Amino acid sequence: MSDKRFEKAEFAAWVGIAGNLLLALVKGIIGFMSNSKALLADAAHSASDVAGSIAVLIGLRVAGLPPDEDHPYGHGKAESIASIVVAVILLLVGIQIGISSIKTLWHGAEAPPKAYALVAIALSLIVKEAMFQYKYRLGKKLKSQALITNAWEHRSDVYSSIAALIGVLGAVLGEYAGWPLLYELDPLAGIFVALLVIRMGYNLVKEAAHATMDHVLHHEDASELIEFVQSIKGVISVDDLRAREHGHYVIVDTKISVNPRISVLEGHDIAKSVKQQLMKKFTHVSDVFVHVNPYDPGYPYKNNMDEEAGAYPSVIH
Question: What is the pLDDT of residue 272?
């Protein structure tokens, strides 16, 4: 990860920590004062986001370390590991929210929450959506799976705040209309938030686990790489090319055929050119391994034992 990329990602993580901490405090205090189970559940969700953002920050710091003897391919997968931590936190919080809301519903809601709980929910919706847009766009730009995962965590909090809004608003209206049954909408909203969080956490676990493994790009995804290598001077053909995801970046292994009559040094220079140009053209490619093969000595070449070998051209490009 470049220094500039790391600085931007780290700043985004700190924005998430500060924003979630502020929201958790505001929603927690107002939720307690207004006696809103849905808002307290929403506050717990924001508190889990704080832990998630810290996990992302740790992952980004580790990913920013240079390759070493034990990690010759770098530490890029640390971001995916951080994503798994965030997803597990979401699952745990979702289960806890569900249990708490079910208990409240079982014992019955004696009074609706205070109307000013709606102010905290409106603030949460605005701040969470702003953080989602910021982190998602930056994550796409930096190709950071951890940031994208953390952004979707903000989006899940937007949905949970909407559910809390419906529950609190319905319960408040129930008091004004004289319908105590509507008081139950507050804990029901808490249950809905729990299911939403659990579903989001499950999806993120699957995506993060997939990113942690060395996933080989499909042929259609690697075709652009193949075409570019084929166009590089000195490359007669691309015998094989495999591009695998390694955290937020891609590692390319390719076999190329070159003129069998050139020197080892010339073949090395061609391989070096392939690596340099690939990494320059495609910024998400972090390393390239090139194996050089002699081109088939058939047409337009002749076998070295053929007396007429000199009658055929030996250089292509």
Answer: 93
